[in-house]
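Wait, can you check?
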Amino acid sequence: MAGSDTEGDEIAPLSGSGPMDVMTALQEVLKTALIHDGLARGLHECAKALDKRQAHLCVLANNCDEAMYVKLVEALCAEHGINIIKVDDNKKLGEWVGLCKIDKEGKARKVVGCSCVVVKDYGKESQALDVLNEYFRN
């Protein structure tokens, strides 16, 4: 179990100063889901996961330039009662879900934009997941 404790320690300094904000919690949940192979990235994968009701959470980028893309994802989420959260930048979302290369200094390079991500499997329960669930209850 020692290996699972070290994964969360990387993000602990960000949230150690007080209560975790929603975007930090979202980033941690996406990272955990990525490790456990629980993400669907891109319109095709997301639409399939949403339609099959495999999705727990949907993340959509605000700067998506295709209106029909946003309309489809929002309609599928509304139809199946899936929580949706919006982030500002698709490049930032792409980095959070692993669509980038990491250089020697640990900085993200060649980040690919991602306008939609669906979490099919959270991986494990965490404080970040509790923060997101509380956000959706309010």
Notes: The radius of gyration is 15 Å. Confidence is low (pLDDT under 50) at residues 1-18. The first strand starts at residue 39 and ends at 41. Residues 22-35 form the longest helix (14 residues).
